[in-house]
Amino acid sequence: MTETIDQTTPIPVLRLEDIVKTFPGVRALDGVSLTILPGEVHALMGENGAGKSTLMKVLGGIHQPDEGQIIVAEQPVVMSGPLDAKAKGIVFIHQELSLADELSVAENIYLGELPRKRFGLVDWAELEAKTNAILEKLKVGFNAKTRVGDLSIANQQMVEIARALTVDAKAVIFDEPTASLTDAEKVVLFEVISDLQEQGVGIAYISHRMEEIFKITDRISVLRDGQYQGTVNTADTNEENVTQMMIGRKLDLSRNEAHHELGEVALEVRGLSCGSLFEDVNFEVRRGEVVGFYGLVGAGRTEIAETLFGLRNPTSGSIFLDGAEVAITSPHDAIERGISLVPEDRKGQGLVLGMNCRDNMTLPQVDDLKAGPFVADGAEIAIFDQYRDKLDIRTPGWKQLVGNLSGGNQQKIVIGKWLSMRPNVLIVDEPTRGIDVGSKAEIHNLLRDLAAQGYAVIVISSEMPEVLHVADRIVAMYSGRIMRTFTSEEVTEENLIAAISGLNTEKVA
Ligand SMILES: Nc1ncnc2c1ncn2[C@@H]1O[C@H](COP(=O)(O)OP(=O)(O)OP(=O)(O)O)[C@@H](O)[C@H]1O
Ligand SMILES: [Mg+2]
Which pLDDT does position 376 carry in this prediction? Predict the structure, then answer.
């Protein structure tokens, strides 16, 4: 299928025609076409592993296509690599950050193109001035001289974006740019995108977040299993239709209400504080229960999770597991006692990209699976197979290096890793970030299933539909304090928003 363009359509900034790309065991792209017009924001959507990033890597010359053509300003071109693409006016903000930690922000932004003085010496003053001018536009809280390794993931993302803005771009490709941005940073990003749009730059935008897609894009193209499914005007479609194009079926969004009895209190927290990060936190989680933690970024939710997992030391308060007070001083302690944490920053904390899928998944259990001096291969493969099916992880086999999986499938490996430990208390921080709608529903069902099997589950999420959907009770946090705890019967969008904005001071523990 190719899209038709009528006479009134402006000349596309770029076209991809019938692109085919295969990897061993995977036909990642199977005849995909895409047209980007000047001044449009064009969404590229599809499930995890559908081929979105691969298509953009073909466009950027990181991969050469097996078949098909790239056409820039009506001229067929060969892209020899990212610098070549950049020279042709196409810049990328990739899903995986590609920055040098040891270098400064300015050096990263102008890497390979540092401004020079006579005798080839780097013109540091010029470099700093140019960089700070761009950073000012992005309203970030760091400067040209900051070392990139000292920045948060979100700020590193802003450095990537700054780098894209140094070029006189015809097209800018964003691959899941907001996955780790806060709401305030997103506002800045959307302003940047709208500026680019006004200058006639064509934008390709990859994201799994429907609200964003419907807010900022003009057209949506969909891939499924490497095949082009069509292009629609955003204004003429809705979430349900796009989802159906992506997964080829209607999605069952009803909540998994498998009725189950609540068991004993598995985890109880009393008067827990950690400096100014959170104060006097009280809650309990029973076996069979999913408790959602909802609040704005910075409300202290992740810090509570980190304290329960032994990554932070509380300044006061107590933690009880199955009724007995415990001191958890390290992740090792936490794991021993049956607490697992699926962290927010899964890339940084969860995966070894150069290791295969199976070994990544069973890493924390290697000691237990050992048969004599050797690790029992069969046992490990069985664990991998079980969670591959449960989470629908798309990979040709367990031997595949995790670095070769699509972004969303990498995240599923980390989730599988912690689930396979069969913890008593499972804490998941932003469990569906970067995960497509179909798998998102599967992960929600899985969390509710785990509760039904007797686990105590804590879900931290910044997405209101997510907590409303999965949680039996919702803890609303504001500025390091629990404002209120809601049962799923009494919670509404309004009272939840009021509580996390600090407007509702009624405290129900
Ligand atoms: N270098 C590689 N070697 C082997 N297989 C690869 C490689 N790069 C991608 N693939 C495979 O190609 C398919 C498409 O992956 P791609 O990264 O394009 O997906 P995606 O649509 O971007 O998904 P996500 O939403 O999860 O980021 C996947 O099956 C992936 O495992
Ligand atoms: Mg991708």
Answer: 61
